[in-house]
Amino acid sequence: MITQKELAARLGLSRTTIARAINNSPNIKPETKEKILKLVKELGYEKNYVGSLLASKKKIVYSFIVESRNSYYTEQIKLGIKGAKKEYKHYNLEIIEIVTNINKPMEQVLKLKKLLNSDKQIDGIIIIPLDKTKILKLINPYLERIKFITVSVFLSKKIAYVGTDYQKCGRLAAELLTKTLNSNDKVLVIDNGDDNISSKYYLNGFLDRANNDKMNIVGPIKKNGVEESLQFLKTILKKENISSIFINRYAQDILLELSDNILKRQKNITTGIGNRIRKLIMERKILATVADDVYSTGYKACQLMVDMLYKEFGKSVKKIILEPQILLMENLK
To answer: Which residues form the HTH lacI-type domain (predicted)?
Structure first.
């Protein structure tokens, strides 16, 4: 009886591609799928042969996810990982989630340290590293025997990475905004600090492009969270004629607290995505958002982990950069 490995060898394709065709996955080119299924039929391959994979030793992967005010991000990362795991169900793979608070980097460090020091089976770790220096120091001694993938935060050329160019998100937001404003319109920029993942890069990218385009910037004004930002906005909006507000962190929470009169006469573009940003777009209170595809980030991370565990990559380390999405009412999912 022919095997998936033999099918892959005959067609010059990967075993994963063969499995996708056999399992009717949408993530395969129609012409490739047709070619595989034609050979499957000719050679009499039986789908239940994947039992050989199920009988192999289980691989265990730990997924370190972060939780924040934006629950959408956490949910979509989890769904992406689960979606890929479902597609690769013929592999004997278990994924164990460990969720920590985005505002408590040390909590993540301690949980990772405890795991690495345990006698548990660890074949792979997917992690959104909050404290880059401490996490890198922790995992360095294990790089030869554990497969690591960092998500959204790049750590090292030695470690596989899946994420979005957040600085590019900020630059795109500024470029879009430039096209909607008059030359003298004032843009207020509020800096709500670094979330250890994206907010610093959103701000840097936005300011870089805004300065190139000679945007009339007020700020950046440093604030510390939603309440402090709202208090400041109530004061400045009475004194200044502000045409747009850019906020690198907590934007959705802050903008939702502003009156409809203020929002609907402004031209605001955000970065990132969440249920409240979706609501703001649908209610025409902001024009658009520039965001990472969070589901695809989780999906690609799990997909890459499967490849790393079940294929021979040699010493090459993959870095997958996903393109930002510009989301308006018309293409909002």
So the answer is: 2-56
pLDDT by residue (tens digit) across 159-204?
Answer: 999 999 999 999 999 999 999 999 899 999 999 999 989 999 999 9
Cα-flanking dihedrals φ and ψ of residue 270, to 5°?
-110, 175
* Domain 57-163+294-321 superfamily per CATH: Response regulator (3.40.50.2300)
Give the domain ranges of the chain. Answer: 4-52, 57-163+294-321, 166-291
Let me know if 271 is exposed, middle or buried by CB neighbors in 10 A (0-12, 13-18, 19+): buried
Q: Identify how many contiguous H helices and E strands the chain contains and give both numbers.
A: 14, 12
Q: Per-residue b/e over 25-62, b at no fewer than 16 CB within 10 Å?
A: eeebeeeebeebeebbeeeebeeeebeebeeeeebbbb
Tokens representing 93?
């793979």
- Write out pLDDT tens, residues 186-198: 999 999 999 989 9
Return the bridge partners of 167, or none: none
**Alpha carbon distance 142, 94 (integer Å):** 20
- 4-52 CATH choice from 1.10.10.60, 3.40.50.300, 1.10.260.40, 1.10.10.10: 1.10.260.40
